[in-house]
Every structure is written in structure tokens, then in C-alpha cells.
Design a protein that fits this description.
This protein is 69% helix and 7% strand. It is mainly alpha-helical and 161 residues long. It has a two-stranded antiparallel sheet with strand order 1-2. Helix 3 runs antiparallel to helix 4 (85-124). The radius of gyration is 27 Å and the shape is elongated. The termini are far apart.
């Protein structure tokens, strides 16, 4: 028992709440922010790869109308290489398919990270700034307007300055 009380004594007692072995509020927030940042970086990487797919599609569509024996140039590892269209077109299509598979895996990782974030928020009762109060005020304002006969629920939660 003495070991438990000494380990909890080093932590701030007001931020740990009723859980003696739980992480401090600062640790919870830091972990939550890190998880959100990971999800954001995954989303930006997926968007970047989507742009690459669009570029590949544009080049593939352009090269389909060109004579297969015509020479073209391709950037490989920072080196510009001269090839023919019939050599480059299949490689571009394979690259496009691989990028699509990578995007699918990133999207599944983002979904699992989103579920993990939601579970973490529920476990530690994390609310984003203004989230709880805005929803409560919007719902109460909408219910009072509806009871008075004016307004609709579609405008609830929208602030206009």
C-alpha cells in the first residue's frame, strides 16, 4: 500500500481523477494530439497519391493516342531516360495500379485510426474545444424555437456574425 501511495503522490492528484494508475491529463492530451496528427498525415499522403494517380491517368490517356514506336522520355530515379511509348505505357499502368493499392491500404489504416481515436476519446471523455457547449446550446435553442413555432432544425448549430 505504501508503494501505491508514494507513486500516486508524485502525480498531480487533481488531474488523475479517480484512477490511480491512469495517465495524467497532459499525457492523455499529448497522446490524443499525436494520434490526430498521425491521422492527418495519412490523409495528406492519400491526397498526394491521388494527385499522382490523376497525373498517371492524364499521361496514359495522352500516350494511348500516340504511335507506339514514337520515342518518349521518362524520369527514373532522377535520370531522364529515352524509351518508346510501347515500353513506357505498360509501366505507367502498373505504377498506377500499385499506387491505387497503396491508397486503399492507407484508407483502411485511416479508418482504423479513426476508430481508435473515437475509442480513446470515449475512454478518457475528451471533448474538443467548443464541441460540448455548442451542441448543447444549439439543441436547446432549436427546441425553444420549435416550441414557439418558428425556425427549423436545419439551422441549429450554425453561427452567423
Amino acid at each position: 500500500m505504501a508503494a501505491n501511495s508514494s507513486s500516486t503522490g508524485s502525480k498531480s492528484s487533481n488531474s488523475s481523477g479517480g484512477k490511480q494508475s491512469g495517465p495524467s491529463a497532459e499525457q492523455v492530451v499529448a497522446t490524443f494530439q499525436r494520434m490526430r496528427q498521425e491521422q492527418r498525415s495519412m490523409a495528406s499522403k492519400a491526397a498526394e497519391l491521388e494527385m499522382e494517380i490523376n497525373e498517371h491517368s492524364l499521361v496514359i490517356d495522352t500516350l494511348k493516342d500516340v504511335d507506339p514506336s514514337r520515342k518518349c522520355f521518362r524520369l527514373v530515379g532522377g535520370v531522364l531516360v529515352e524509351r518508346t511509348v510501347k515500353e513506357v505505357l505498360p509501366a505507367l499502368e502498373v505504377n498506377k495500379e500499385q499506387i491505387s493499392k497503396i491508397i486503399e491500404s492507407i484508407n483502411t489504416q485511416m479508418q482504423s485510426k479513426g476508430r481508435e481515436l473515437t475509442e480513446y476519446r470515449e475512454r478518457y471523455n475528451i471533448r474538443l474545444v467548443g464541441e460540448g457547449e455548442a451542441e448543447a446550446q444549439g439543441q436547446s435553442a432549436a427546441s425553444s424555437r420549435d416550441s414557439e413555432g418558428g425556425g427549423s432544425k436545419s439551422g441549429a448549430g450554425v453561427l452567423v456574425s
